[in-house]
Write a structure and sequence with these properties.
single chain; alpha/beta; Rossmann fold; 8-stranded mixed beta sheet
Length: 441
């Protein structure tokens, strides 16, 4: 038995991230080992979690991974923790197809209770029917209690408590309307300054959680049997025994700094099973390590375009590695670093990049490209997520080697490029239960 909490919300923008950050820090300050998780494919909130709890956060995504894989990694990472806190995604029941891929589905898979965060800024007792609906819409989703956000006064909270009582839900407290609790921009990069700002906001939020939320009652209501029970015997998509194991341990180089940090913990764990990972920094001028496989994850290269442009030695090493047939996987920001140039603003400099691909990337007229992606390449079924504002100026200058589709199976125009053994595209792939080495067979 241990407390297992899933923080859901009535709608996006309710304040679940703010509350989750404050709760993680408040529990950590009690001397508890807190294991954070994140529903969905987000690779930014997980970095917030790591700052709050001083522990890597793990993605739980029911579209990119199988149910038994989700249960397996939840049990694996939670085993040594005193308490588990999972942050939901969007509204509680919002998925890519009705409830599929939603926070509620993760609650169902793991059989953990939900703490519902409700933004009460423009409402009072009228939240009662909303709460009643959330409680009864899917009775299999156990809502353990409610925390209100943006509460203006004790009198305001009184109306909200009455609403909880009449809806048949436990009221666990609230966060008051407070200036200065806004999380730093999600587009700042993981710089020391951004982490310091984030830490300050998290600390202030934790003090409010400690003051206005009944943490002891919350923990009691959310204590459940651990580990969660598998719906089926655990096997990975390809079967653990059939995963490719090279005869010799691979040397694996992974870019990790303020510009390249959009990674899934499970991906790195799978790579570590194949060999020894050495991290390097394109922004701060590390040499490319000796490697049999190089991984350039996504991030914020546009914020560091000038610094990256000056790393001539690094770019030359990447070109030499590519020409020699080295295996390299680049995702989103990593692909941008391998492009011919990167333009950050209208009329601004087109910063020269590594030039492995004859494409030019730009942030001009930036538009959000967002959604799940899937494809089959080299006989390997891949699933991932696309999230970026940049674009390729002439994306068809080189052909895509695969057709990508969204979660509903509709074709999208997201390319997947290949030059020799360099594979790159905008999609952040998840290979927690996939044999990623098959890409190069």
């Amino acid at each position: 038995m241990k407390p297992q909490i899933l923080v859901g919300a009535a709608t996006s923008g309710s304040g679940k991230t703010t509350f989750t950050m404050g709760l993680l820090r408040a529990l950590k300050k009690r001397g508890l080992k807190v294991q954070p998780f994140k529903c969905g494919p987000d690779y930014i909130d997980t970095q917030f979690h790591a700052v709050a709890a001083d522990r890597d956060s793990i993605n739980l995504d029911s579209w990119m991974a199988s149910r038994t894989h989700i249960q397996h990694i939840y049990n694996l990472y939670a085993e040594k923790a005193d308490v588990c806190v999972t942050e939901g995604v969007m509204g509680l029941f919002d998925g890519y197809n009705r409830m599929q891929g939603s926070t509620a589905e993760i609650a169902q898979i793991l059989q953990v209770p939900v703490i519902l965060v409700v933004n009460a800024r423009s409402s009072a007792y009228s939240v009662a029917p909303l709460l009643y609906g959330y409680k009864h819409f899917r009775p299999s989703i156990k809502i353990a209690g409610v925390v209100f956000n943006q509460v203006s006064s004790a009198a305001h909270f009184g109306y909200l408590k009455d609403a909880c009582k009449d809806a048949g839900l436990e009221c666990l407290g609230y966060l008051p309307q407070t200036e200065g609790l806004r999380m730093p921009s999600r587009h700042l990069g993981l710089t020391l300054t951004a982490k310091r700002q984030m830490d300050e906001v998290i600390e202030r939020t934790s003090l409010l959680v400690e003051q206005y939320v009944d943490i002891d009652k919350l923990l009691s209501l959310c204590t459940r049997i651990f580990p969660c029970q598998y719906t089926l015997p655990y096997t990975s998509e390809v079967g653990v025994e059939s995963m490719h194991r090279p005869s010799a341990k691979l040397r694996i180089a992974v870019a990790r700094d303020a510009a390249f940090n959009f990674t899934y913990r499970e991906n790195l764990d799978r790579l570590s099973e194949l060999g020894k990972i050495t991290y390097f920094s394109p922004v701060y001028g590390s040499d490319l390590p000796e490697a049999d496989l190089v991984y350039l994850p996504g991030g914020y290269p546009e914020l560091f375009a000038r610094q990256l442009h000056r790393r001539k030695r690094m770019m030359e090493q990447l070109r030499e590695y590519a020409e020699a047939g080295g295996k390299l996987l680049a995702e989103c920001g990593g692909m941008m670093f391998l492009s011919r140039s990167l333009t950050v603003r209208q009329g601004g400099t087109a910063y020269e990049m590594a030039g492995i691909f004859p494409i030019d990337c730009t942030m001009v007229d930036a538009k959000l490209h967002l959604g799940y992606r899937q494809t089959v390449y080299q006989g390997l079924s891949l699933k991932g997520h696309e999230f970026h504002y940049s674009s390729v100026v002439c994306p068809d200058v080189i052909p895509s080697v695969a057709r990508l589709r969204n979660a509903k199976g509709n074709e999208v125009n997201t390319p997947l490029y290949r030059y020799r053994n360099v594979i790159a595209g905008y999609t952040h792939w998840y290979w927690g239960e996939t044999d990623i080495l098959k890409l190069w067979e």
